[in-house]
Design brief:
The structure holds 2 protein chains of 2 kinds.
Chain A: H1 20-27, H2 33-40, H3 44-51, E1 62-64, E2 70-71, E3 78-79, E4 87-92, E5 97-101, E6 106-109, E7 116-120, E8 127-130, E9 133-136, E10 138-143, E11 147-152, E12 157-161, E13 167-168, E14 177-184, E15 187-193, E16 200-208, E17 211-218, E18 234-241, E19 244-254, E20 259-270, E21 278-282, E22 288-292, E23 298-301, E24 313-317, E25 329-333, E26 339-340, E27 354-356
Parallel strand pairs in A: 22-24
Antiparallel strand pairs in A: 1-2, 1-27, 2-3, 4-5, 5-6, 6-7, 8-9, 10-11, 11-12, 12-13, 14-15, 15-16, 16-17, 18-19, 19-20, 20-21, 22-23, 24-25, 25-26
Chain B: H1 3-6, E1 9-13, E2 19-23, H2 24-27, H3 31-38, E3 45-47, H4 53-68, H5 82-93, H6 98-111, H7 114-128, H8 133-140, H9 148-157
Parallel strand pairs in B: 1-3
Antiparallel strand pairs in B: 1-2
Classes of the chains: A mainly beta, B mainly alpha.
Amino acid sequence: METIATTTLGECPPWQDLPPDLLGLILQRVPSHADRVHVRAVCRSWHAGAGLQPSLPPLLPLLLRRDGTFLSLPDGVVHRIAAPDDVSLQKSTGDMLFLVHNDGRCSLVNPFSRETAHQYVSAECFRYEFNSTVVYNIRKAVLMPDHIITIDNNSQVSIQSRTVNLRWTPSLDIGAYALDVTLFQEKLYVLVGTYTWGPKLYVMNIINDKHVILQCIILSNPIDGMAPGFLGNMNHYLIASGDRLLMVKQLNNGLLSQPIPAKFEVFEAVDLSNDGARWRKVDTLLGRALFLSQGCSQSLLAGDLSFGPREDCIYFLNERNVKSMSLCSGIYNMRDGTLLPLPSRAADSQVAASWLFPPNT
Amino acid sequence: MAAEDLKKMITLKSSDGEEFKVEEAVAMELQTIRHMIEDECADNEIPLPNVNSKILSKVIEYCNKHVHAAKPVADGASALSPAEDLKNWDAEFVKVDQATLFDLSLAANYLDIKALLDLTCQTIADMIKGKTPEEIRRTFNIKNDFTAEEEDEIRRENQWAFE
């Protein structure tokens, strides 16, 4: 669409008439999700023009802080949300928030529109009192169509029906504990650790209420020096990345109680459909970036934007207190092994934060 | 290449009838014109009915600078690299009033000059980032033409960005 460029000197140019393809180029260059939302809210023609754009390049996700506010990267702007007073716990499931209220009720909320999607069953089973404070013992929540899968702080996996008041805990092997759980190609995978063996991969098949089949797929130790037995100063993540299922091992220095992230290793679960499923070390994310946090981990396509996700980079947030607050989170570059802080100082001291992924604006 | 080809000049004619003689290499920065030249369907005079003389002269100034910027300064007088020099020059080039910025971005789009398009769009994006919708409207003197219901709906979809 060509517009005659003949504005008179001193006259205000008709910015609302900016052609859609120019508006699209501008939208690609504003650095935050909030900026993209604001551009669409300026006037009708910009709203329409923005709507005509094919999907925009990816931006960094938001950081959900412990107090329920969102931190935007790289600009460092904090968005405060009017949250219900009675929320005891908020977990990001990716693009939704799993809330546990003080009375044990759970709800699922769209954090961007604040629409409450459903009211679920009780989180009573996760409740415990500690020094007369009520705490809900959930580390991670994964949404499935009919169930919510949770990992509690004792590393036990639970399955909760979304329609009836039913929850059960499948038993893992003796001495085994859930490291992480994720959905991959519509199947549920559980990464299980033991004190004597390397991480094992299970696929979890929910047959019906109360019946689940846990099938161990990868038993063997991965190649490339994963020392069996010592799972001590490491964090493990299981994450779907494009059409690969990846396990990320975070190796820490320092004390167990105060780990300092030093290095990340990435393994792909290959040959999943055959009998010979195994871990294979990989050194590239094939055009993607990983966002890791204990509560929520996802991968995003990397783009050309200087302020967007970078290829072969791992953006991590740690749960446990670390010796130096500035190492709580950071960016690990797989290509050269360097560690950098996240692009905003406000992200430094965010213990127990997790990633939140807005829908592609 | 024969000596005459090096100096081949193209005439660009603005909407208000002014003629600008430019080197062929400079004219080729305008991709729309490059195609015409390469397909040999261009006369030596090319009319540009969508661009006035004021803007066309700015566009030519930009293209001239960028085409000749590759040549290093003979005496190496500048303390900055040629790339930094060019970046600084670009930054000064877009310090113009809004009307000129608007017209330049449209012209860069119409004439298909990628680097100028990137520069103008980045400049506009920098004027937008970090602002609320109301602040953006004030910066660009844009009228809020949403109905109350439409505005409510937009805020509702993304409440978090408006708090």
